[in-house]
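Quick bug: Exopolyphosphatase output formatted oddly.
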Amino acid sequence: MPKLAVLDIGTNSIHMVLAEVQPDYSYKILDRFKDMTRLGDGVFTSRRLSDQAMMRGLEVIRTLVNLARNKGYEQIEAVATSAVREARNGGEFLDHVAQQTGLVVRVITGAEEARLIFLGVQNSVALPEKPTLVIDIGGGSVEVIVGDRETVFQARSLKLGAIRLKDLYLTKTPPSKGMLRELEEAVTAQLKTGLGPYKTKRVEQIIATSGMAGNLAEVIHLQRTGRPLPQLNLAHVTEKEIAAMEKRLAGATLKTRLAIPGLDPKRVDTLLPATIVFRILLELLEKSELTICDKAIREGIIYDFIQRHHESIKAERDIPDVRKRNILALAHRCHVSETHALHVAGLALQLFDQTKPLHGFGPREREWLEFSAILHDIGYLINSRQHHKHAYYLIKNSDLSGFTAEEIELVANIARYHRRSVPSRKHDEFDALPGSSQQVINVLSALLRIADGLDRSQFSVVQQVEVKLGKPVVIAVQASGDAELELWAARGRSDLFEKVFKRPVEFVTANQDDNGT
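Here's what came back:
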């Protein structure tokens, strides 16, 4: 099943999840990694990522990418959010990431970030029929999304992230009353604008995602019960508890805050602004409770990947062999007639199996023949004239995962010689190959030429072949109708077979004797 690594380069933290998509289009998280890199520290006042932050970020990304690849995760979906999006040197940072890891990071808009967050929640929580508001407080931005089980009604990205608010308003700890008042006014104004028509009781519930919400819930639960929170997902905290925690954080020094049970030391300066945002949101919507969801943007990216790759996941489920799956995918991309391609492959394999005493090849060569037969007509994508040569070019230059360069060269050559001229030392690509590879191409393309001829009409008239290995080699065909066109085409394609095996070929229908034509 598909293995997917999701790398979330956030303002506050860099996360990676390693997931495996299941046959039923669900997924299983196999591992999670997180580093609170604080990439966005200072970026919202200077509009630049600091050199130190970029070095920290690059080191973490390099480590996580290497870890994913060492575990066999070739597919890595990487996104960056507000800090990189808003920094003047964000592009420079992503260039360094690409140079050092080969990873192309997608910088997503606030609207796309909101959509992905809601997608993660929507597929993880049983939402009520009435609208739900989801809030995700990151380091740089706050995503506010209103939707139900089926639809997103509104998605807004607000510049109220915890690091941003800390940098802009809370310049000392504990903050002054003036700082807190200015912060509260800014948060209230933006939330009122962002909520739009959802300022009343039209919203059934409020769900909070992200590490800020999770850590706040952990601290409050410890304070409430004296025990660690047993499960983060669907935990509840009240507006009164949030307001009390806000008051406690606002009046505390850094040292006092660090002594609060459960508080993440790396959030010692950002949990207060996040708490203020939660409290004001609840007040504006006249709600008394916040529900926590432990799924957000990373899970949304996984669901989005599943939706976008539905067909390829189905193919992987139905065709577990990665090599054959990639061959069929290439044929599909090139708009090959699947019926003809698979029928020719089937006839070619019948010929291969029944002529084994002549060629002596095994399973590896049999597979190459099958793959070449499936791809022999992909050159039509470029032009019908000389489509056999175009087939060679397309196969040679396609990204066929699971194949060595030598195998791709063999498959490309076998497909190239399915018609017209036979393999020749006059052809540079063929002449450059070692003698053993040339022999494989000669034999397998000889079989493919005949198999292709036997489906000349592309109506699968010839169903089965029976080969009698004598001098001549007699190929008896079992047909569902008039097969004269197929027999004529196969005779015209038997030249290479006769040259390779040094014996003539005769074609008969199954109800004829061996001397019939």
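Actually, after a second look the formatting is fine. The chain has 23 helices and 14 strands. Closing.
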